[in-house]
Specification:
Chain A: It comes from Halobaculum lipolyticum. Chain A: Keywords: Electron transport, Heme, Iron, Membrane, Metal-binding, Respiratory chain, Transmembrane, Transmembrane helix, Transport. Chain A: It is found in: Membrane. Chain A: Belongs to the heme-copper respiratory oxidase family. The complex is a heterodimer of chains A (585) and B (178). Chain A is built from 18 helices and 4 strands. Chain A has helices at residues 30-33, 35-66, 78-110, 117-140, 164-194, 202-233, 242-253, 255-270, 272-275, 283-296, 313-325, 327-347, 365-388, 393-396, 401-430, 437-463, 487-518, 548-571; strands at residues 17-19, 25-27, 160-161, 583-584. Chain A is an all-alpha fold and 585 residues long. In chain A, helix 3 packs parallel to helix 5. In chain A, a hairpin with a 5-residue loop joins strand 1 (17-19) and strand 2. In chain A, the strands form 2 sheets. Chain A has a two-stranded antiparallel sheet with strand order 1-2. With 178 residues, chain B is α+β, with helices and mostly antiparallel strands. Chain B folds into 2 domains: 1-34; 46-174, Immunoglobulin-like (Sandwich), CATH 2.60.40.420. Chain B has helices spanning 5-30, 46-51; strands at 64-67, 73-81, 84-86, 93-96, 100-107, 112-116, 122-125, 131-136, 141-146, 159-165. In chain B, strands 1, 2, 3, 5 and 8 form a 5-stranded mixed beta sheet that branches. In chain B, strands 4-10-9-6-7 form a 5-stranded mixed beta sheet, with no helix packed on it. In chain B, a hairpin with a 5-residue loop joins strand 1 and strand 2 (73-81). The longest helix of chain B is centred in the N-terminal third of the chain and has 26 residues, at 5-30. Chain B starts with a helix and ends in a 13-residue tail after the last strand. The chains are: A mainly alpha (585), B alpha+beta (178). At the A-B interface, helix 3, helix 7, helix 11 and helix 12 of A face helix 1, strand 6, strand 7, strand 9 and strand 10 of B.
């Protein structure tokens, strides 16, 4: 909705109307302006939602299995389901969802179509092939007749060994995402040649900084997989160093969470203020936040290895300090996003210190989902501060606390934001009106309640020492002592919460399927793609913020400082030593 | 660059919070002395561990509980493998109350975890690396040992026990023949 500010005139053209075949008028949507880009967005979101459906089903099976409510598989197959849930949710659902969002964001904010349909087809098909290989190998683990499996979980720590096709698939998915990034950069270059002196549009700035972060961080996992794990799983090298490969994984393993989170931030900064009825508070601060993430997100991976032997405490301390400073951009985001929502609420007539909250459109699924995901992210941020605390981390490392934490961050901040923005975006990329609005309006609340139950119980179970990643939560030789409540009650909450989350996923998928199949292209869209200009525009910020080369250079220097010596220590005795032969699962 | 007054305040408060967090961790390390698992355990050939040729390792004795050479503590050598802790699973690890217990933990096959459930005695067990850390138990009691890192299809069966006993009842189970 346009707010009537004079700045809207620049973007007013997005509100034009078009004639449809049967003579009715409808709002000119993204799909009418950029049919090529809209098709890419549709393909990406479609694949993302299919992966989400599979991941959600696997999640339900796990939640019911490890709480002893319903067991349809032997416990030894639990790990196949767990691997499938992890890979589908945090690699396939996210990567395709992000590729779709980014294609929309660059195209919309630059006003330029994707540069090459061949390049687009290349990155899409590379990502799809990688997904099929990795996903197929995982699923093969459920069938004894197929001589392949990849029950190695999302982290695939050597020397547990998966079928080589799993590693090849994972590598292809990442290479495909690199090519997608190349396409966004070419798109930006085309725009730049026509606008030599203009500031980078905010959404494109966010996409480019996030992709740069992705390039820097995926280098670690690419080296791990291509140099070590693929040759090792093919028998070309006899052994790999488990600590070194694990370190390369976590070099990527923490920045990847920002690769999931920053697209959600993109939506929170650019779309949520509009859905709240207002505009973004500050464009310059949004840029500062993304630059801070680019610089600080990679040199922190050792905070996943606080309890690892073989890494000197000093290096862990450096990573801890970096991690703590990484709180800064998230705390700034908290301020800006809440301030922008408050501004929107006051435009809608909200008053009072907290009374403005009532003026927000809580009945609209896109707004409600994004706002609720932000609230949950704040809670996840607090548990993340505990994870980051080098010594208190010892209490919760690898306990159920950790999945409790990341189901709030990636499992809600990213996932619920993507679902919610789809209620607003899918009509624009399909030209079809959202169907089943009642179900859509309820869906974010179902997800919210399910996640509150599941994640609070997981956090508390972690304090009792109940491990993550296990098919059986109880043991023969001892029992866990709950700090608050009882272990049985936590188990009930996890089962109910997991079931509600599955119901929420099904509701979302039903709305999307209905919109895609039942929606009529000639119906008048309720949503429009106009994003009002921020109150403080890009012109208020120093131009150096747009100097991406400078920020990449600083990021690389920080990575070299944080990783140079520890990696040197690990490879000083030979890159394959101390080495472990593969242990097939 | 225009930054709103409230944004500046928030920025400053955030920085104070972050520095305070780092301060608490530094205090935890130098005050109460919460020690971290570091690299002082050294490396070991996983093959040596898998085959039990401990005489070929200069920093790892045969699994068991030893009185330390200076006589006022114990050293516990533990090997984790699919799907047991040696010692710990077949018979409980016994350590005396009040003494400094130095754990040395390594893996024979894949990556495992070693956690005394509900405490911050927690380490990864990575093939090729020896995790070394000190714990002093002030009270007698029993702890469950959990493998908290997925280590194969039988991972959920991997568990053990540690008993803290009165010093008078403690009897080192292994002899330092190595």
């Amino acid at each position: 909705m346009a707010t009537g500010h004079p700045d809207d005139r620049a973007t007013r053209s997005e509100e034009e109307y078009v004639e449809t075949e049967d003579g009715t008028r409808r709002r000119r949507a993204f799909v009418d302006r950029y049919p090529d880009a809209a098709q890419i967005v549709r393909i990406c979101l479609g694949i993302s939602f299919v992966a989400f459906a599979g991941g959600a089903l696997f999640g339900l099976i796990q939640a019911l299995h490890r709480t002893n409510v319903l067991r349809i598989l032997p416990s030894s197959d639990y790990y196949t389901i767990l691997t499938g849930h992890g890979v589908l949710m945090v690699l396939v659902f996210t990567t395709f969802g992000i590729a779709g969002l980014f294609q929309w964001a660059t195209t919309r904010s630059l006003g330029v179509s994707p540069p090459s349909s061949r390049l687009s087809a290349a990155w899409l098909s590379t990502m799809v092939l990688g997904t099929l290989l990795a996903g197929g190998t995982i699923l093969a683990g459920l069938f004894d007749a197929v001589p392949a499996s990849a029950d190695v979980l999302f982290t695939f720590y050597a020397p547990l060994e998966a079928h080589p096709l799993f590693y090849v698939g994972a590598a292809l998915l990442i290479v495909g995402s690199w090519l997608a990034g190349a396409s966004y950069f070419l798109q930006y270059r085309e725009w730049r040649s026509a606008h030599p002196d203009a500031r980078i549009p905010l959404q494109t700035f966010m996409v480019l900084t996030t992709m740069l972060l992705w390039y820097i961080s995926t280098l670690g996992v690419a080296i791990e997989v291509v140099v070590f794990l693929i040759p090792w799983s093919l028998g070309l090298v006899q052994q790999v160093d488990p600590l070194l490969t694990r370190t390369l994984f976590w070099y990527f393993g923490h920045p990847v969470v920002y690769f999931w989170l920053l697209p959600a931030y993109l939506i929170w900064y650019t779309v949520l203020p509009k859905l709240s009825g207002g505009r973004l508070f500050s464009d310059p601060l949004a840029r500062v936040v993304f630059v801070l993430f680019l610089i600080l997100s990679t040199p922190v991976g050792f905070h996943h290895q606080y309890t690892d032997p073989g890494i000197a405490s000093g290096y862990k301390f450096v990573a801890m300090t970096n991690t703590m400073f990484l709180l800064l951009p998230s705390l700034l985001t908290l301020f800006t996003v809440v301030a922008s929502m408050e501004h929107g609420a006051r435009q809608r007539g909200g008053t009072g210190y907290l009374g403005w909250l009532k003026a927000l459109p809580w009945e609209r699924p896109a707004f409600a989902g994004i706002a609720l995901s932000g609230i949950m992210f704040a809670a996840g941020g607090f548990s993340g501060m505990i994870n980051a605390g080098m010594n208190i981390n010892y209490l919760i490392h690898n306990t159920l606390w950790v999945p409790g934490h990341f189901h709030l961050t990636v499992g809600t901040a990213f996932a619920l934001t993507l679902m919610a923005v789809s209620y607003w975006l899918v009509p624009q990329v399909t030209g079809k009106r959202l169907q089943w609005r009642g179900m859509a309006a309820l869906q974010p609340y179902v997800w919210f309640v399910g996640m509150v139950l599941m994640s609070n119980a997981m956090h508390r179970a972690g304090l009792a020492g109940i491990p993550r990643r296990t098919a059986e939560p109880q043991y023969d030789q001892f029992s866990f002592q709950a700090v608050v409540g009882s272990v049985a009650e936590m188990r009930v909450q996890i089962a109910i919460g997991g079931t509600l989350l599955f119901v929420g996923a099904v509701m979302f998928l039903a709305v999307m399927l209905a919109t895609w199949t039942l929606g009529q292209p000639n119906s008048q869209l309720r949503v429009n793609g106009v994003l009002p200009e921020p109150m403080s525009g890009a012109d208020d910020s120093p131009r150096v913020l747009d100097n991406l080369k400078l920020w990449v250079a600083i990021a690389v220097v920080l990575v070299a400082l944080a990783y140079g010596l520890p990696l040197f220590d690990m490879v000083a005795d030979g890159i394959f030593v101390p080495g472990s032969p593969p242990v097939p699962v | 660059m225009h930054v709103h007054r409230f944004e500046k305040l928030w920025f400053g408060a955030s920085l104070v919070l972050i520095v305070a967090f780092i301060g608490t961790i530094v205090y935890g390390a130098v005050g109460p002395g919460v020690a971290m698992v570091g690299d002082d355990g050294g490396t070991i050939d996983p093959d040596v561990v898998a085959n039990g040729n401990y005489e070929r390792a200069d920093n790892f004795r045969a699994p068991g509980v030893y009185e330390s050479s200076d006589g006022d503590g114990v050293d516990v050598y533990i090997v984790a493998r699919q799907y047991l802790f040696d010692p710990g699973t077949a018979e409980p690890i016994e350590v005396p109350r009040g003494a400094e217990v130095t754990f040395h933990v390594t893996a024979a096959d894949v990556t495992h975890g070693f956690n005394l459930a509900g405490t911050n005695v927690n380490t990864m067990v990575i093939p090729g690396q020896v995790a070394t850390f000190d714990v002093t138990f002030e009270e007698t009691g029993e702890y469950g040992i959990v493998c908290h890192e997925y280590c194969g299809s039988g991972h959920h069966t991997m568990e053990g026990q540690l008993h803290v006993v009165a010093p008078s009842q403690f009897d080192a189970t292994a002899e330092g023949e190595n």
